[in-house]
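User: Structure please.
Assistant: Input sequence and predicted structure:
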Amino acid sequence: MHSTKRIYFPNLNGLRFIAAFAVIIHHIEQLKSIFNINSLWNSKGLLPSVIHSIGSLGVVLFFVLSGFLITYLLLAEEEKTKTIAIKKFYIRRILRIWPLYLLIVLSSLFILPHINILLWPGYSLETTQAHLGWKLLLYLFFFANLVLSMFGVIPFASQTWSVGTEEQFYFVWPVIVKYIKKHRALLFIAIIVAYNLCYLFINTPHSNFVPYKHVIKAFVNGFAIDNMAIGGLIAYCLYKNKPILKYIVNIYTFILALGLIVGILIHPIFTPYINHVKFPILFAVLIVNLAANPALSKVLEHKALNYLGSISYGLYMFHPIAVTIAIKMAIYNHSQSNYIIYPISIVLSILISAISLKYFENNFLKLKHKFSIIKSGSKE
């Protein structure tokens, strides 16, 4: 039997911050381009290519990490209580995700478009509130990925597409884990394969006969359950101590995975049939090594990184506001200098996120613990 004491994996808070930081860098350059100031976004070369890639990779890392942690905790709960309390799981996710998500969405639709300093070129109040009923409905039912695909960028809220994707995953995953107990590893692999076949099919002309294809395609392309299922598969292997772990939780495998990630970023390899899963698999290798390899237990275990990881949700949600303010300050000072834009963007993102965690999110997180069966996270 596994111990029922608090479950804590080292390094993962630091990894959360790295993922959030990658997204912030990506969006700084993208927003500089929107504001028509000197940016790497529209340039060619190695660095612009990396900038374009790291934002989506940061989100993929979040997805795999979510799948890993959620699956491991569900398995621990099942072993401890002989079941999985789905209602309590949903309540915990609601208390963690919904308050900040709804704050960002409602502010982006109804408040921030009225603040002149936050307006983006080409994104007026009328643009933001066009099709308002549909946007609001989709956001409230956590189909933020459909909003982005169908209606384009919504300033300060478009990053919530990935939160919608995670909520969709959280809705189905505990049910899958609770009620399908046999051959779970094969089940997770089947989900990964099935999703990728759907992804490939809906993105080819062969699917043109499908009714409302544009809506289905928008949903499938943003669902990414395979990313989280890959995280779940590696969590299952770790929890059950599968023999394959001796080949995966290995310093040489870790270095190889890290090298492949860097190498592919520097020189992209286009492999259509595995392109969609190569990074999630490599990220899963990194995650399980950082979480369970004693030789790597202190790599990202630093007080500052742990704290920044604890506010990573806020960093992800608030950073477009901080970056916009930083760019407007640079323009006001007749400067396009990265020495102004980057420090202000990063510091302001951290400051807003820290305030949000302490004075807003913590009010809900305190309630979350009442519905927790398995304690997780740092003791601090």
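Residues 46-81 form the longest helix (36 residues).
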